[in-house]
Amino acid sequence: MPAVINALVLAMRQLSDPPVLRVLAKSIAITIGLFVLLGFGISEGLPRLMSGYLDLGGETYAILSLILTLFALWFLFRIVAVAVLQFFADEVVIAVEARHYPAASLGARRLPFREDLSNSLGSIARTIGINLLAIPIALLLIPTGIGPAIAFFGANAILLGRELTDMAWLRHRQDPGARSPAGRVDRLILGAAVAGLMLVPFVNLLAPVLGAAAGTHLVHRRLRNDNA
Question: Which domain holds residue 200?
Answer without folding.
Answer: 2-26+86-227
